[in-house]
Amino acid sequence: MADAVLAAADKYGLERLKVMCERALCMDLSVENAAHTLFLADLHSAVQLKTQAMDFITARASEVFQTSTWKTVVDSYPHLVNEVCVSLASAQCPFLEPPLKRLKRS
């Protein structure tokens, strides 16, 4: 029910309720619902939920990619697939991130 309440909270600008829904959805993340949760988080600008869903998918990518919900995301939301790929690449190859600037020595 938290996903429906999240939509209403987002629509009516009820930030505290939105945070409560995000928290509930984070606690309920599973291989089966992770892709749908990522979609919901993106749709409703739920930053914390999106981060948690992205981290969950990154950690369990091989399992999540086998679900029918992930296949729906691939077909309908390519921008989310791109974000997951970037997250996976960063997790696998941390050297792909921009290098830190060197401090000038005097």
Automatic annotation (TrEMBL):
<protein>
    <recommendedName>
        <fullName>BPM/SPOP BACK domain-containing protein</fullName>
    </recommendedName>
</protein>
<dbReference type="GO" id="GO:0005634">
    <property type="term" value="C:nucleus"/>
</dbReference>
<feature type="domain" description="BPM/SPOP BACK">
    <location>
        <begin position="33"/>
        <end position="84"/>
    </location>
</feature>
<comment type="similarity">
    <text>Belongs to the Tdpoz family.</text>
</comment>
<dbReference type="InterPro" id="IPR056423">
    <property type="entry name" value="BACK_BPM_SPOP"/>
</dbReference>
<keyword id="KW-0833">Ubl conjugation pathway</keyword>
<dbReference type="Pfam" id="PF24570">
    <property type="entry name" value="BACK_BPM_SPOP"/>
</dbReference>
<keyword id="KW-0539">Nucleus</keyword>
